[in-house]
Amino acid sequence: MPAGLAVEAVHCYSLLHDDLPAMDDDDLRRGQPTVHVAFDEATAILAGDALLTHAFALLADETCHPDPTVRIRLVAELAAGSGVGGMVGGQMRDIEGEKGGFSNGDIEVMQAMKTGALIRASVRMGAILGGADPRALSAMTAYAQAAGRAFQLADDILDVTATSEAMGKATGKDAGKGKQTLVAQMGLEAARRELDTIVNDAVMALRTFGPRADGLRATARYFASRNS
Fold first, then answer.
1. Residue 153 covered by a domain
2. What's CA 87's distance to the chain center, in Å?
3. In which residue ranges of the chain is pLDDT below 50?
4. Residue 169 covered by a domain
5. In principle, which of 20, 64, 148, 219 could form an S-S bond with 2, CB 3.0–4.6 Å?
6. Beta strands in the chain (DSSP E)
7. In a domain, 66, yes or no
8. Domains: count for the chain
9. Is 29 helix (H, G, I), strand (E, B) or coil?
């Protein structure tokens, strides 16, 4: 539970900062006014900073796991997924892409960092807590990478097809900004076919686990079928 809370704290911090005027400048999140709208920008920045800091305090506490070696591994995983080589670096690449455009492959790299890295960290942290051996951890990592790609591609599709009411946030912003996405590159129908392929990759990565991994398989399928 503390490890899960730490991931959610990082996730929520990222949303608070992502919604700021200097970033995506969104007024709505989960059907509610974003924090900088409901309060002010300084509060949103500081609330995000507090959540990010608290995440690592949760992982460092003995209630997370009695073995300090495990706790350090969890800290390292979350830092890798959320820092310059992960979510933050991916956000920077996204900003650079909006200004200068993306070359071939850049969109996939950006999305793997911005969205996929935190999903990857989440899955690997669970595997570490479960005592996974190197082979199992490798399979879980392959699953997580495919699941992260599926989540982001589904999000890009929903930005084109879903209403703001269903999503609880503004939609159609990617096209409005001239933002390059996989949907914009390959078209909606091709993107949907690609999404099916990626979900199948995620499911196949779990083949050695049998029924024990049914929850993870359902999660990957949910990423693709969600409507909000």
1. yes
2. 8
3. none
4. yes
5. 64
6. 28-29, 32-33
7. no
8. 1
9. strand
